[in-house]
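Hi F.,

I've been meaning to write this up properly since the lab meeting, where we talked about keeping a consistent format for the predictions we share between groups. The idea is simple: the sequence comes first, exactly as it goes in, then the structure tokens exactly as they come out, then a line or two of notes. No screenshots and no reformatting. I'm using this chain as the first example so we have something concrete to point to.
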Amino acid sequence: MQVEYRNLQQDYAAAVYCRLSRDDGTESESNSIQTQKQMLRRYASENGFAIYDEYVDDGYSGTTFERPEFKRMIHDIEQGRINVILTKDLSRLGRNNALIAHYTEIFFPENDVRYIAVNDGIDTFCGDNEIMPFKSIVNEYYAKDISKKIRSSFVTKSQNGEFIGSKPPYGYQKDPNNKNRLIPDEITSVHTKAIFEMIVSGHSPYSVTKYFLKNKVLKPRCYDDIKEGRKTLEVLDNPYKWHESSVVKIVKNPVYLGHMVNHKNVTRSYKIKKRIDIPIENQIVVENTHEPLVDNSTFEIANKMVRVKKKKDKTGQVHIFTGLLKCGDCGKSMAYTNPRSVKNPHAFYACANAKRNGKDACTYHYTRYDHLYELVLQDIRKQVKLAKLGDEEFIQYLTKANQQRQNAKVKKMTMERAKSNKRFAELDLIIKRLYEDNVLGKISDERFMILTKSYENEQSDLKETLEALDEQLTEIEIQNLNSYQFTKLIKKYTEITELTAPLLKELIDKIVIHQAETINGKRTQRIDIYYRFIGTI
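Output, unedited:
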């Protein structure tokens, strides 16, 4: 803007520069942009400076000089349009000591620019300002201290399960009564649920984007622009054209389970604003902080579906076993191969490691697609049929199958646990008797200390052994409890006529293909089906 005053000093064209951000530690009226403007306009008028323009960076940290209005002011200086800069105080110019020194001691003098910080009494026209370097250092340390306090505040809020982002994830909005709490958005929560439902039912992220385009579902950024009044629908570019990555990002976000995940990335320092990602194990996760939009089962299946590429054969059909088949020896995925010729008309799977790196890396573990399909279909039908017997009967069947696998292991661990417990009790008795003998003077204090230390060390080792055994036995018990989860899952199906990718992803964790053997002149191949929650049956 251009501001006119009477009795102006024609030799000066002044720039009024104002800045405010959270690193200033306050948003009080004394530091507001409007207050800064009024003060500097008054100062310019009283001192006869003609104001060339006003430059305002609202919401930009003083630790960086990558500010749009500051850069515009620097450009005007380089063009010879400005020769005096007015700020409320030195901290408005910035809080980076090195860059403040560069501008006030090198850039401004080289361009014949006079700098005045009104409240600090700094005026480069009056010669050296001994106080300016000290104030600049204090301003930088203040910014550092504020940054540290803000980081600490964010960590505390994160640990409390509060939402600390500027924009809520798609499907949610900030609670009008508590900006740190998420509640479902009436419109986008419906679309978020639709994404999960479509992915679980076998649709790809790409087909979801096509569906949204056809049904005119606004993509996240455009929805926010319209909701917050920044733009109208008419000026938006491709408002319904979703990107596949946006769909995948939503499917992978645990926020839709009702969990808050914070501290996912941080800035390198209060001066360097580039953000670095935090490893998943170091992120702050607080469960059950807000209303979920999907359940655990749906979330898990949807994530399985988007993790694997849905490879298609020449007919365009998706391979239903993609992502499930593993080699029984090297653990790599099994690769699908179309029928090769009239003589070999069957599609098959083979170890991808062997196909890529040859037989020295692994053997092929060849298995025909139609044989695998029939085997898996019949096994699932068997589980569905058994589940119809009743919950208790089916759970007993699953538990018995699990116990048969674990029986020898459990028996050995139980015996070892009983032996360790017995020895632990014996050591307690020995230490007690040693104590009595020491009190009665039967053994010396030195001898007592040597013996008790030895027995206590043995007892400590036994305690660790018992804890490890208890943990392993608990894991086996949990596997038995998981029978209830699988029973609930399998009962959803009454009759299965064909296999589909969603059905397989919901019921099965993996299928392990072992190398075929010839027994009594007959080809035999072991295939292990690992069902969700319970493993092999």
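Notes:
The chain is about 45% helix and 15% strand.
The radius of gyration is 36 Å.

If this format works for you, I'll send the rest the same way.

G.
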